[in-house]
Amino acid sequence: MSDIDFHQQREHLIETELRLLGIRDESVLQAMRVVPREEFVSEDMREFAYRNTPLPIGSGQTISQPLIVAYMTEALELGPQDRVLEIGTGSGYAAAVLSRIAREVYTIERHRELAETARERLTQLGYDNIRVLHADGSQGWPEHAPYNAIIVAAGGPGVPSSLLQQLTIGGRLVMPVGEDQKSQRLIRVIRRGDDEFEYDEMGAVQFVPLIGEAGWQDEVETRSPRVPGKQPQGLPERIRQAAEPIVSPDHPDLGGLMDRIGDAEIVLIGEATHGTSEFYRIRAAITRELIENKGFDFVAIEADWPDAYRIHDFVTHKEREEPHEWEAFSRFPTWMWRNQEVLDFVHWLRDFNLDHPNREVGFYGLDLYSLFTSIHCVLEYLDRVDPKSAEVARVRYGCLTPWESDPARYGQAAITGAYRNCEAEVVQVLKDLLGRRIKTAVRDREALFDAQMNAQLIADAEQYYRIMYYGSDESWNHRDTHMFQTLQSLLEHRGPGSKAVIWEHNSHLGNAAATQFGKHGQINVGQLCRRAFGQNVYIIGQGTDHGTVAAASHWDGPIEIKEVRPAHPDSYERLMHYSELDAFFLPLTRSHDPQLTTALAARRLERAIGVIYRPETERLSHYFDASLSRQFDEWIWFDETSAVRALSTQQVAEHEPPHPFALMDD
Length: 666
What we know:
Helix 7 (about 235-240) packs across helix 21, helix 9 (about 275-295) packs parallel to helix 11 (about 340-355) and helix 15 runs antiparallel to helix 16. The protein has 25 helices and 20 strands.
């Protein structure tokens, strides 16, 4: 077959396959146009050189499919002055393509025969800006680092930390990563700082295994981790080795976790559902340890301010002149905070404050749904301290009165022009209360702060109900911004050096930038905390494979105890299940296994169950794409879980007033 035939086949491959399959970078297409692939395969394979398929080259290796070479090269975003490191020289074809775009290419091959053949071939063909090394590619080539780009043509259990450290700031690495040697996901890593890396998943691929000190140890195929009685291999085995077992969620060994938390002053502890007992119990155990031994000052939860403040009064032994005329945590979903697990912690915290009179560990709510309860609290405060101001506030808040039974309808009416906007009125009440700060703070500091926080909530809730009709992202961002700003107000109120524990759902606390929602513009409390407080924050997520959960089938529906389906095969939860451990702590960002951290940064499905659970549509309703080790610093796993023990009206009525869960007598 003549050279002109190869030229025509090359052009046909580029124009009718690569370009049509999505390769857009002209420099990549031009490089593949000028590199003769037929020179990098054996004589008996030359006729297949321009088929879009991998071809054997000896030593059990292959020359990659042209589309994959183009796809990975394009993802590197190479410039003419870049220095590139390639792991897996093979025949030298990909190195030749890279050399037509970048200034220098350094390539490593662990098979001596392939390395020598490739070096000789590249020299004969005149590629004088390529250097070939026979070595363990998983360790990189540090003598010539840093590199603007690194491409790895073999699949490993994770991205070797040695390669990450050889990237320049802004450098790109493309590599297949998988939990076993048979299948991988192609990921791209961009180094954003000394210890900051951004991960993107680019799709499923299949490469030969990366063998070496920082890769797989041999080429023997791993056993399926699904086989009962056999120890899991690959990524599940790495999880197993890095995990710290939990014997009891009520009394776990917290030594390792406390060391990793270190001097962090804000600890965020998430949950994968709003109705799982183990999540609540271990969160309480961690919080007790933080309060007792690390001096944490308050707990802030995903609950409305006035309801949680009832608990605050109770645990800090505040006496009210008159009991509240409303019941705490009475709106849907009542079981989220009215449960035995929370009650046990509340009693512990009350006893702790009694035993430590020089400390006052508080309990607060961050959420904004209590529009009319907060109005009641503001008016109650003003009635007590300034009746004339109370009269003015009643008139201003009267704008919202027609919508007390359904505040969401107010938002709809306001944005359609069917009813006047109440923003000016509620904001003015807030301004009036903030103006009282100086003259009343000395004698009435706590009560004033409570009223001000309720007034801020009213202003934010009024806006929330208006913007919720513009789309879920806008209302979500407004809500989480309110929760974060409430946290900031609490830190300021409690004084310099104050330390906070936050209890919310994983979706609020795991860094949103590491999820599919963050890519679409959503922010959350965890992301805002990380941005504001940096390494002073430690974020903990939780997950489960199966069990029972307290949840409803629809909004405002009754509580049901539902069976949680076993996790999706493509999820992080399935990986944890394959570790064959019942419960454990898993360090992510401060792990002794950096390869595990990078492997758990690859995007997979993650499950989120809120107050509503629809197992019949679980994949669509409850899973999203995420990068686990970019979301959280730590992961807590319970393979099998049980529902929270919700408190009924009869149970709570047995407690003495002013218990926050008690009912008023008729």
